[in-house]
Amino acid sequence: MTIISIIQKSVIEAVKSLYGVEIAEKDVLLAPTRKDFEGDYTITVFAFSKAARKSPVQTGEEIGNFIKDNTPQIDRFNVIQGFLNLVVSDAYWIDFLSNAQNDAQYGQLSPKNERVMVEYSSPNTNKPLHLGHIRNILLGWSTSKVLAAAGYDVVRSKVVNDRGIAICKSMLAWQLLGEGKTPQSEGMKGDHFVGDYYVKFEKEFQKEYKAWQKSQTAQSHLDEWVLKTDIPKLLVELEKKKKKDIEDKKYFSDDDYSPRTYFFKEEYKNEYFNKYSQLGAQAREMLLKWESGDAETVALWEKMNGWVYEGFNETYKKLGVSFDKIYYESNTYMLGKDIIEDGLKNNVFYQKPDTSVWIDLTDVKLDHKLVLRSDGTSVYITQDIGMARLRDNEWHCQKVVYVVADEQNYHFQVLFEIMKKLGEPYANGLHHLSYGMVDLPTGKMKSREGTVVDADDLIAEVIQEATNNSAERGEVADFSIEERAEINRKVGMAALKYHIVKVNPKKRMVFDPQESVDLQGQTGPYIQYSYVRINGVLKKAINEGLNLSEKVRYDKLEPQEKDLIFKIYEYPKAIEEAAATYDPSVVANYCYDLAKSFHKFWHDLSIFNADTEGVKIFRLQLSQMVGHVLKHGMDLLGIEMPEKM
RNA sequence: GGUUCGGUAGCUCAAUGGAUAGAGCAACUGCCUUCUAAGCAGUAGGUUACAGGUUCGACCCCUGUCCGGAUCACCA
Prior knowledge:
Helix 8 packs across helix 14, helix 19 packs across helix 20 and helix 22 packs antiparallel against helix 25. By secondary structure, this protein is α/β, with parallel strands linked by helices. The chain contains 25 helices and 14 strands. It binds one RNA strand through helix 2, helix 18, helix 19, strand 14 and helix 22.
């Protein structure tokens, strides 16, 4: 039985025997005692003092005395205001530590006998990965690791958006301008290579569009729009935007804030692409050819996507993540129609006179939502409906976690409601792990303004920064070149990963590249360093032939030692909480706290100069256990630990 | 405009309805003849956006206001 439930039971008994009131476990408010007071756990007694009709202090004293007399694990207590601080005996903690030490799997919780799928990353194949994807990937990976540690059977998956007009744009640009070049011939990563052609398409398209804007047709569309638009209101908005841009030092030119520019850029672009653009027509034609299975088009599509996958896989490898199942939209985009048809029969959906199919979600405070176009083709959500059932057929997961940015909150709300209305048995296990966008200190990332941080560049940069730093320190000079490179890689990646994963997912975060390569303070390398210190003393102990499995007598813990044991004890709770809330930042913050406690312990107390041989062994054992938990916890975040640095 | 998520120190972030709201960065001060100073200790920095309410007790719950983001497509 854990000390927490021992205390809870004891409080329940105390309240019953002292005041004759029955309470449940959840009524016992138990929290770790604040640093400034003596104690390990604190019970808030305000609620009981009401039942007792005594002052909170008196109630606390009475309950405290009862617990102390009836619970051998509790040494002493103190009461401050309405707070009862309990001191757990050193013997209990020492006993706990030696048990934990014998558990090589400490941190792996018992099986929950439930399967959960974590779907993350899900990229488009027309652009390389960027900082936003990195947050997604790290979050998805660490969440999956946390869930596995919490006892779930985890399946990691992604859905690749490998089809559609976007990849056709890249294909077309390559056909027109590529001159038979390949990633190999250009010495480029495949995803960057293909991404470049997407950009080239956009450039050509803009050229074409700009020229067209001078035409008579363009002018008449503009005039038409001006007539039905509240221009004064728009002018005010544009003026606002201009002011803001000037503040953000992003001012372009006055022309960029004119209604004319606004119209062509924001209002008319899609229509031009679909109606007048030559390039647009060619891209659409390519999409049609692809859909009809035209051999040449499909071959080109396969070739270019192949390049992209090679590039992506390199990035995934650098990030240390993997997938158990990859879905391709090209295989799944027609899914879901049959479910819509069935749902139509069962009146889950309804059909409008134009034959388009809808669902009424006004009863759950959402809107009417289209699920099938009037021409019978599917929309985005149709696919997701089909995908949900497909996943269930293949994997039988009790839970599915979709790791997707918060701009799609509405989409998933709608999707989950539809699945419930369809009566899908797994509908209540669907969860959208929604995370905020990543901002730069200079503002939003926008590809149009060239402010996107490329994933591969960023990875290279953090490793370079770690390398520079270690060269400055000069302490690794005696390591081999390979060793040094490996250490720098681990340190740089730890800085990057920790910096991102320590933030609560649902918060929009500001990513300062400069700050992300910091190696001091609340960072990945700080935690790694505590592990390296532990590793160092353990090595020394082995060299000295010490036996660390020896059971030692020790009965008076130093505060720094108890602090460490206490935190080790709390580790499973951190995992449980992180899993329940799908929030790896809980583990990230936990690891930092533990590392911080260890650094203090290291500074304040000497291991090898301990008073007695027994204390020395005990501190080594304690350090070893801290090292185990740190490595385990950081692994859940996808962060590797170096042996030295 | 409707819906929704945020707003905590100069900056980046913590804080089950509980005690005096905590860390890190940046600034300033100390501590290496010792198991790795990527460390430790200290100083300074707060009307938790604002106004009410509920409560023994509110950063946290409720109402309203302000600011910021996202979303409200027969796009994905």
